[in-house]
Design goal:
Oligomer: single chain
Strand content: 15-25%
Order of helices and strands: EHHEHEEEEHEHEEHEEEHHHHEEEEHEHE
Radius of gyration: 26 Å
Structural class: alpha+beta
Length: 426
Amino acid sequence: MARADLSEPSAGIGDAPVSADGRKPKSPLTRLVGSGVEEFSTRHWGRKPLLRRTGDRFGDLLDLDGVDELLSRRGLRTPFLRMARNGSVIDSRSFTGGGGVGAEIGDQVADDRVAALFADGGTIVLQGLHRTWPGIIDFVTGLTDELGHPAQVNAYITPPSSQGFSAHYDVHDVFVLQFAGRKHWKVHAPVHTAPLRDQQWNEHADAVAARAREDAPVIDEVLEPGDVLYLPRGWLHSATALGDVSAHLTVGVHVITRFALVEALTALVGADDRLRTSLPLGIDVADPAQLEDHFESVRDDLIAALKAVPAEDIARHVRDRAWKGNRPEPVAPVAAATFALNLGDGDSVRRRDGLRFRVRDEGDGHVVLGLPDRHIVLPASTATALSALLDGSTWRVGEVPGMDRTDQLVLVRRLLREGVLMAASA
């Protein structure tokens, strides 16, 4: 495949997430795919790779100093660190140990052991950075809002001229963000297209090895700081560091697939009593001939049951995969509690970034605010104010529509304590 089919230049240059004119911050997705988000959606998303030379070195997300801080001063434990060498995972007991006095745990990262293994050719894999590193936490909060799919971030730090993992595929889409050094990537077409979560590459290990060995790569390029590579799940890839220490972030997107709807439908048709009836007494379920007598009637009942499943029930069943995949914007517990306690007229609040929610009018004098882990029941009289407070704008207490000042204070304080709202800059 020609380079023109896979790569796209970008005008944005620099470490900060700003647009080319330097005035308006770029959205996380725009930083990854450029201004043509719609084109990316139709041409590349879930279909084929994209390589971009952005010039954005991602220093606000992570750099090598940050890597050292995570490894030496943040008290990481497994599985937040993993190491590999020559394509194989290193036993975590080789780089972890006791935490010492006051931290009686046995699996805290031992920085000196990590240093020795790294010097000996081991690749460092920092896992779950969307939970441990501030810049990446904020980046992923915004990105998952745009994608509609949950995401995670790992960092791969490879010694000079070393290969961390041999050719393989992932069961989630990935964005690779090179932020230090250079790395030679080879990408091959899938041997198993769009794999599901339980369809791991080692089930096709022979085909993967043969494809990587015998076929010409679709991408055979060196990534340098500022380069972004998008790979849909199933595309084979391997990478080798060149010359100096090489480091990249991998944003893994845990896509919600059409098969998730199939799974939801399968779970929900259990409400149909025709599909719950017992097979006959004495049946030999190992005999296809005996089962065949039931296939047609079960198939007909299944089709009827599938057609009767409400879309609302399917959405409720599937949404937890997206809603619980990532946490919303972090809350500062002490500051949040103090702000709520001292809340008064003129104080500004906003909806918490990345919060997943749904408001439902129960029709019985109540509205229900559905959150990933709970439901908040409120009087129907709060509906107008609740809708305003959740619209993404900044609101001053006393100016929220649909309620008097006293009731606004009660509602806003409740939503602050529930982690729905946050203090906003004036």
